[in-house]
From TrEMBL:
Gene3D superfamilies reported in the protein's UniProt record: Divalent-metal-dependent TIM barrel enzymes
Domain Xylose isomerase-like TIM barrel: 58-262
Organism ancestry: Bacteria, Bacillati, Bacillota, Bacilli, Lactobacillales
Organism annotation: Candidatus Enterococcus mangumiae
Protein name: Xylose isomerase-like TIM barrel domain-containing protein
Family annotation (PANTHER family): HYDROXYPYRUVATE ISOMERASE, XYLOSE ISOMERASE-LIKE TIM BARREL DOMAIN-CONTAINING PROTEIN
Domain of life: Bacteria
Length: 279
């Protein structure tokens, strides 16, 4: 069975235009993108006031010239920003992305949860209060997703309030909606101490809430001398990609598999490597 492989638009670097992005994706044998507008096109206004259906149609048509499409539209926000006015602004932006995602051809809008601290990492993210805040924010976004018939894809991360499979299960139990999806990045949920358990983590996730997993990030890594997880191009690190993609195929055929942090010409090599895995 062929894999439904996706590349992040901003992993194709030095992109100058939508046409350029389409061409570079096609050259790497990538036909589907996870597109974060502000990261691929930093000079383009893409906030809640700027995004519009014409923008979506233009980008969709330009990519289609090279048989490339947007599968996932990213809108990375800190949904629990400590400044409530900023929080309201970014939640409104995400809602706008949900409103116009279909014009881009996307099937979902994705984000991480963020942090209760402007500085990023804080142990306060692991509190029940922080978790309650993300539940409230995601419930608001999912209601907008239901209105616009667009899935909300939420990505857990070790340093965020959604930091474990148990917390993901709690979130799913708290928000009963077909428009809530989970984007699983196992490399975001491991440390230098437990990274050898990654395949088991993926298997457990699919067994516990596989029907909610709407995307899988396949991010290769090395463990540094300082004990940090360092992303690298697929096939140059320690991830057991063969076992992980087989789990995904078993539970969710043709699931989006995003080659996160694999950049430029390394994407074509990754596509070839994964083609050999799946026969």
């Amino acid at each position: 069975m062929k894999l439904n492989l996706v590349a992040r638009g901003h992993d194709l670097t030095t992109v100058q235009s939508v046409d350029d992005l389409a061409k570079k994706a096609s050259e790497q044998e990538i036909s589907t993108l996870q597109l974060a507008l502000s990261r691929s096109f930093p000079d383009l206004a893409t906030d809640s006031h700027a995004i519009n259906p014409g923008m979506g149609h233009y980008i969709k048509q330009a990519l289609a010239k090279e048989d490339v499409s947007v599968g996932i539209l990213s809108c990375y926000i800190n949904m629990i920003h400590p400044d409530l006015s900023v929080r309201e602004t970014v939640l409104r932006q995400f809602e706008r992305y949900l409103q116009y995602a279909a014009s881009f051809g996307a099937t979902m809008v994705a984000t991480e949860t963020g942090s209760v601290s402007e500085a990023g990492y804080t142990e306060k993210n692991f509190s029940d209060e922080a978790f309650s805040q993300i539940v409230e924010a995601i419930r608001q976004l999912v209601r907008a997703g239901e209105k616009h018939r667009m899935m909300v894809g939420i990505e857990p991360g070790l340093n965020h309030p959604l930091y474990s499979l148990d917390r993901v299960a709690e979130l799913i139990a708290a928000i009963d909606s077909d428009y809530l999806g989970i984007i699983l990045d196992p490399t975001n949920l491991i440390t230098a101490e437990n990274h050898h358990q990654q395949v088991g983590l993926v298997e457990e996730a699919f067994e516990r809430f596989g029907e909610k997993i709407c995307g899988l990030h396949l991010k290769d890594y090395l463990v540094s001398d300082e004990g940090e997880i360092v992303p690298v191009d697929l096939g140059t690190g320690m991830i057991d990609y063969e076992a992980i993609v087989k789990i995904a195929q078993k539970h969710r055929p043709y699931l989006y598999i995003v080659l996160e942090e694999t950049k430029d010409s390394a994407l074509k090599h990754a596509v070839s490597v994964l083609d050999h895995v799946t026969g």
